[in-house]
Amino acid sequence: MPESHASTELRLRRGEPRDLDVITSFNRAMALETEGRRLQDERSLAGVRRLLAEPALGFYLVAERAGEVVGSLMVTYEWSDWRDGLFWWIQSVYVRPEARRQGVFRALYAHVSSLALADPGVCGLRLYVERENVRAQATYESLGMHRTHYHVYEAERPGASFFD
Q1: From 105's CA, which of 33, 78, 114, 129 has a CA 20 to 30 Å away?
Q2: What is the pLDDT of residue 6?
Q3: Number of structural domains, the chain?
Q4: Domain limits at 119?
Q5: Is the pTM of this model over 0.85?
Q6: 3-state SS string over 52-111?
Q7: What is the dihedral of CA 138, 132, 128, 16, to 10 degrees?
Q8: What is the CATH number of the domain that holds 134?
Q9: Which residues contact 20 (CB under 8 A, 6 or more apart)?
């Protein structure tokens, strides 16, 4: 994977163990900002640590500017038997507030897209977004993504508590 991407002063790279704290802090900030939820400190740290240690689960991309991580996203995998390929799910998108509207996510998305296009086993990209996050939806649509006809349902493990 190339270490950088042609974008003004941004360096894009895969997340590494040294990014554990910043990615975890981004996840906490994003959960609070978008859903009003406080992630449990130890559980959220363990979740990022595990993905960094187990590439079969996915990977992080980070964007650095002047040596500081200003944005990140996570990619996880979903097998599609209909397409005989993997969808890459873009998740945990976060850009520091002071770096927003400066092309950070656009650069991260372009990089993920190029990686996906280079891998014949990837059949597409997907992400989910909060219904009220109109700004993010407009951004995704401007990048060529479109809303699907699916709704997302979930059932959490009974008795589990993931939020403070």
Answers
A1: 78
A2: 40
A3: 1
A4: 10-142
A5: yes
A6: HHCHHHEEEEEEEECCEEEEEEEEEEEEECCCCEEEEEEEEEEECHHHCCCCHHHHHHHH
A7: 90
A8: 3.40.630.30
A9: 45, 48, 49, 52
User: What residue type is 64 in one-letter code?
Assistant: E
Residues in the chain: 164
Sequence letter at residue 71: G
CA–CA distance, 96 with 70 (Å, rounded to integer): 5
φ, ψ (nearest 5 deg) of residue 19: -95, 5
Please give the C-alpha separations between residue 139 and each of 54, 57, 63, 75, 123, in angstroms, as whole numbers.
30, 26, 17, 18, 22
The verdict on residue 18 lying in a domain is yes
The Cα angle at residue 55 between residues 155 and 118, in degrees rounded to 5:
105
CA dist., res. 39 & res. 45, Å (int)? 10
Show the tokens assigned to 78: 């979903």
What's the average pLDDT block by block, 10 residues per block, for the chain (164 residues)?
55 98 97 92 96 98 97 98 97 96 95 97 93 88 91 81 74
The answer to whether the CB of 92 falls within 8 A of the CB of 30 is yes
